[in-house]
Amino acid sequence: MYKLGQYVHGDGITYRLDPRIKIISVMVLSALVFLANVLSAAFISAFIVFAVFLSRLMINRVLRAFKPLVIFMCLLFVLHVFFTDGEALYAFSFFPMEITYEGLYRGAFVTWQIACLILAGAVLTMTTPPSDLINGIESLLRPLRPVGVPSHDVAMMISTALRFMPTLLEEYDRIRTAQTARGADIKKSSFSEKLKLARALSIPLVFSVFRRADELVDAMEARAYQRGHRTSLKELRITSSDIAALALILLLAGSVLFSTEIFG
To answer: Residue 178 half-sphere exposure, CB side, CA atoms within 13 Å?
Structure first.
């Protein structure tokens, strides 16, 4: 089962792209998402769906990337619905709040923004091996080395964080299964009992995070890992496909900026 941040073997077009081009594309998409209006949102959505199609990724695997953040997205939508001022759509007689048209629009739009960020990040991590991701980030940060930015260390930290996301999710599932086997029933529990169960889940998970970190440090020291510049077995080279992909993302950026400037 796919977890957010996990690499998935495949042979789509995006697998063969240079990791630097994919990282730049995700960064550009992330910026465009927050600049988009309704028209440009349609362009961005179509582009991301097109990228998923070119990757030949299974839809069910892509949708599983949203699972860890579904509750957060729903909460974000509800907060905008109830706490955004505007024209009232429905007012509660027993509750001093109301649903507004602006709240519905803003909640749906912010939820779409988060969904685009998750999907773009999922496509990046699913189609890029961790080693290539490290090389790509390090190569992009290399011009900052003269000003004291440790490019390889930063790339290693980012890659490690992405790599351990699925591991921590698996650890959470394991702890939750163990709690259920001991008689914990989250669905039928009261609110106070759910808080106790959340504490019973979070404390072992925090200890597991520190234990995994210690194991990683021991493994790196056992392999004589040292800071500083390191060579790579696979040299990154820009091909015609990479240039075409970069031109496509720049075309999308121009279209979004143009529509934002014209339609606001």
So the answer is: 10
